[in-house]
Amino acid sequence: MGKKIYIILSNTGTLFSKAIGMYTKKDLNHASIAFDEELNEMYSFGRKSSHNPFNGGFIKENPIEGLFQRATCAIYECEVTNSEYMRMKSKISQMEKQKQLYKYNLIGLVLVAINIEMERENAYFCSQFVATIMKECPSSRLQVAPPLAQPHHFEQLSALTLKFKGNLQTYVSSKRKVEQPIHVSVWRKYAFSIASFM
């Protein structure tokens, strides 16, 4: 019996994401990999703090916090063998133990726009990282080298099956069987406060 992994393509609506979208002409410009359908073990390369886009590296992502709270997504399922699954988890475990060594490959991301392949030691952008991990699965490798991988390339993999497309919080709430949180803007909260005094 094999295992399943999940590829998550998302749009957090940040200026950085919009800038990438201007080049790719795609809506979903961030890629992550997860080892369970509830997305409790979800990893990528991105900003370490939601308030600082320039401090990036290896991260374990929380799909219900920060920039993901208003994200849209497409979630793909991929069946892998037990040995492929363990190799991928082992690779990520090693990276997590030494996460301080890893940085965001902004130079590589810029070079993708002009189709120049460049690998830097211990540096990845999100789709490069996911493609690198997926190299452990021969049947699910991309046709392009990891330093040229873009999120939409994963949509073209026949080994991946689309399981969900829409609001990320809706997906997570359904899988974790919890109520979807209601996000109220600061201005609406302010309006409610005023109304309570009238």
How does this structure look, described?
The protein has 198 residues and is α+β, with helices and mostly antiparallel strands. Helices cover 31% and strands 27% of the residues. The chain contains 6 helices and 8 strands. It has a 6-stranded antiparallel β-sheet. Strands 6-7 form a two-stranded parallel ribbon. Strand 3 and strand 4 form a beta hairpin. The longest helix has 16 residues. The chain is globular and about 40 Å long. The termini are far apart.
Per-chain topology:
Blueprint: E1 3-11, H1 15-24, E2 30-34, E3 42-49, E4 52-61, E5 72-80, H2 82-97, E6 103-104, H3 106-112, E7 123-124, H4 126-134, E8 160-167, H5 168-176, H6 186-196
Tell me briefly what this model is.
The protein has 198 residues and is α+β, with helices and mostly antiparallel strands. It has 6 helices and 8 strands. The protein has a 6-stranded antiparallel beta sheet with strand order 4-3-2-1-5-8. Strands 6-7 form a two-stranded parallel ribbon.
Query: What is the arithmetic mean of pLDDT?
Result: 87
What is the number of strand segments? Answer: 8
Number of helices: 6
> What is the chain-wise order of helices and strands?
EHEEEEHEHEHEHH
Gap between N and C termini: 63 Å
Main sheet makeup: 6 strands, antiparallel
Shape: globular
* Percent in helix: 25-40%
Unreliable spans? 184-198
Q: Pairing-aware structural class of the strands and helices?
A: alpha+beta
Oligomer: single chain
Radius of gyration: 18 Å
Name the beta content range: 25-35%
- Strand order across the biggest sheet? 4-3-2-1-5-8
